[in-house]
Every structure is written in structure tokens, then in C-alpha cells.
Amino acid sequence: MKKLIQTLIITGVIVSLLISFTACETEPSEVGIGLQPGSDKIILATDSLSVFTRTVRDSSVATDERSLSLLGSYVDNDFGQTDASFISQLMLSSGNVSEDATIEVDSVTLVLNYDGYFGDTLADIQFNLYQILDTDFDLDSTYYSDYSVSSTLRQLGTYSFSPRPSDDTIAFTISEPDFLSVFDDNTIYADENTLLSAFKGLYFEVIPSGASGGCIAYFDLLSDNSRMIMHYNDSETYDFLINNNSVRINMFNHDYSLAAPEIQAAINNQTDNQEYAFIQSAAGLKTELRIEDTDKLNAILEKGVNRAQLQVTVASDYFSSSDIPEQLTLVYKNDNDLYEFLTDYKVSSSHFGGEYNEDGSYTFNIPLYLQDLLSGNLSADNYLSLFALNNRTSANYGAIYGGAHPDFPLQIKIITSDF
To answer: 184 and 87: one domain?
Structure first.
């Protein structure tokens, strides 16, 4: 019966802690007084674990078949220059072209569906458009943000536009004769494999802006609006679609030689705990962290851990809140340098956290991560990686207070219970 009473009391304590986190670190509270003998009091206390942080380039991440494709160039006084280009295949639509049809292509219109932007919409985005001639892409392969185009290319034109958030789409006309002649051949419409043998895809290569500012546009290629319209035989049209069978690759390049000295120093210093750490989407920067005091960690884990939260505070003295990512994610980097989701995320992704709070912070609930460290399932020597959840499909950035900040250090806040 005594064990049952203790279990019920602990359960009640945990429920109440989900509602309020008010315990004092130096003055632990006593719960259960008057309900149990004095020797069975449950003592709650708050504690914290210091965290080592460093800023690391996140230069090669898988960026194929993402929800958005980015195109543009942006030069930031702090983060330097970011250039975004992409590749996309196109597929046949449901409409069929007869094998014996005579086709004479007049022009092609490429239509892309807007889905946002980063930067100044009054700035021009310039890009070269190419037909990829001799590279076959495989939907089952993985392509990364640092993908380099080594194919023979046919330039179809150089284009310039300013993103218009109020518009749904933007259209570009292609009239390059050799490109149009590809579609005069009625045999390529037999099936998608035949099409891809003749028309392997398009490469949108941004022209770096070179000047401060700029803009990066976000396109939803899977939208019904995104397509390539072939105008032929004076009055007829045929649609080529971009769908889930189309290989799509986002490619990002960052020039940190143009970045602020503080960010350059953070990138180049991987040994010292940092006062500020940085996060940048578009495969830019991530923050790596790990627990410094493993002896204290082991002592804490000998008690009952009721709550453990990694509390990340935005360094508001660096950037405005409008630039920061809406959500961060936290993963474990194993011995093979591969990411693993934390058990806390696997159990409940909605309770795991990572959303931006109005008070300028992000919170992650990670009690099971600490238990995995205690059991030996994970190693405290391995880093956790903190980066923007949409780091493959946006260009946002931000600064956070690192583990060495004197006033707002990055920490893991813990509530423990003991008898």
C-alpha cells in the first residue's frame, strides 16, 4: 500500500509540473508532507546542466524532392552571401500526342508557382536557364545541397524578375530553336522514360547579385500551376508537368568571406565554448552542443528526472525576430556522423517542442535523451545538432545565446525528485 501511495503521489506531482514550472533551484520544495511518514517525503528540486556550443557549417544536406525550390541571391552584412539554384525534371501530362502527329513547336512557356521569398522583393533576381543534355537523374538516388552540375548544358536564355508576393505565378518564354526542336519529335511522348532520354531536365542557375541585399524566391513546383506549356501548330498546347516522379534538387552556396568577423570567428573556432551560436537555413550554419559536466549528469540521473528541457534563447541584440526560423529541430549525431531522432521525438513529436515562442525562445523536452545517456544507448561525447526545421527550403537565419554567455547561457533545465 505504501508503494501504491508513493506512485500516486509521484504521478500527481508530474501532472502538476506539466502545468507549472516554479520550483526554485536553491530552495527545493517538499511534497507529500502530512500524507506520508517523514522518511517518505518527495523532495523536488530544480537543477541545470551546462552545455558546450559551437557553430558549424552545414554544407552538405540532402535537398532532393523537397516541398519548395529556391532561386535567388542575397548578401547579408552578417552572414555573407547566399546563392540558391535548382534542377528539375518535367514529365508528360495525361494528354497524349499521337505517334503519327506532325508537331511544329512555336514556343514554350515555363510557369512557376510562388510560395514565398526571403529578402527584398524590389530586388531583381537574375538567372541562366539551361537544358541538361547528358546527365541522367535517378529518383531513388540522394542529391545534396552542394551538388555540382557537370553535365553538358544548352543555354536557353538569361532572365530577370522581381518576386511579387501578390501574384500566384511567374512565367518565362523559351524560344531557343534547338531546344524547341526536341519536342518536334513525336516519339518522345510515348512514355516518361522516352521523354527523359531526350529531355533530361532544366537547370536554373542564379547569377550572384554581388551587392548588399537581394532576394531569394520560393517556388512550389508541385503546384498544379507549375508546368511547362508547349505551344505548337499555331493554336494547340501541351503541358509538361512537375510531379512526385520528377527529380528536383536544391543547390546552395555560401560565401562567408563576406560575413561579419564574429560569425567568421565562430565558424573557425571549434574548440572554445561560444557566447553566441548561429543558425542559418539553406544548408548554411547549425549549432552543435553537448553536455559539459558528465559527473553532474550522472549524479542527477541517480535521482528521478521529472522534467528536462533544453531552453534556447534568441540573441535579440543580433537580429530581428522577423528573420529567425519559425521552428528548430534537435537531432543526435552518431559515431558515423549520421543524424538520429531523439527518443523524445519518436515518442511524441508534438510534445518534443522546437517552435518559436513569443518570449523569444525555443524549448525542447528531452528527459528520455538523458535516460538514453544513463543507459548507455547514447554517448554524451557525441554532439546534438540544432538547426532550422526547414533548412532545405528557406533562407532564414538567427543567433542564439551559446553555452558561454554570461547572462543567458544555453542550458538544460531539470526538475528532479528524491525521497
So the answer is: yes
- Asked whether residue 252 is assigned to any structural domain, the reply reads no
The answer on 273 and 239 residing in a single domain is no
Same domain flag for 117 and 168: yes
Residue 279: which of 391, 146, 118, 409 has the closest Cα?
391
What pLDDT digit, counting tens, does each position of 185-242 carry?
Answer: 989 998 999 999 999 999 999 999 888 899 999 999 999 999 999 999 999 999 999 9
Q: What is the pLDDT of residue 264?
A: 96
- For 71-98, the pLDDT digits (tens) are 999 999 999 999 999 999 999 997 667 6
CB-based contact 363:311 (threshold 8 Å): yes
Residue of 32 and 327 predicted with greater confidence:
327
Where does a domain end: 198, 213, 246? Answer: 246
Can you say whether the dihedral through the CA atoms of 161, 132, 248, 76 is positive or negative? negative
Alpha-carbon distance of 157 to 126, in angstroms, equals 11
Query: Is 292 found in the same domain as 212?
Result: no
**Separation of alpha carbons 36 and 370, rounded Å:** 29
Assess if residue 336 is contained within a domain. yes
238-248 b/e with 16+ CB inside 10 Å = b?
Answer: bebbbbeebbb
Average pLDDT, the chain: 88
3-class secondary-structure state, position 185? coil
Tell me the H-state helices in 204-359: 261-268, 294-301, 343-347, 349-352
339 and 217, same domain (yes or no): no
In a domain, 267, yes or no: yes
Strand pairing category for 236-241 and 227-232: antiparallel
Q: Is the pLDDT of residue 55 over 90?
A: yes
264 and 405: one domain?
A: yes
Question: How far, in whole angstroms, is CA 405 from its chain's centroid?
Answer: 25
Residue-number span of the structural domain to which 289 is assigned: 2-58+260-418
Report the percent of the chain where pLDDT is more than 90. Answer: 74
Segment 262-317, tens digit of pLDDT? 999 999 999 999 999 999 999 999 999 999 888 888 888 777 788 999 999 999 88
Number of domains in the chain: 2
First to last CA, the chain: 17
Answer whether residue 63 is part of any domain. Answer: no
- Closest listed residue to residue 253, CA positions, set 115, 80, 88: 80
Give yes or no for a contact between 394 and 282, defined as CB atoms under 8 angstroms apart.
Answer: yes
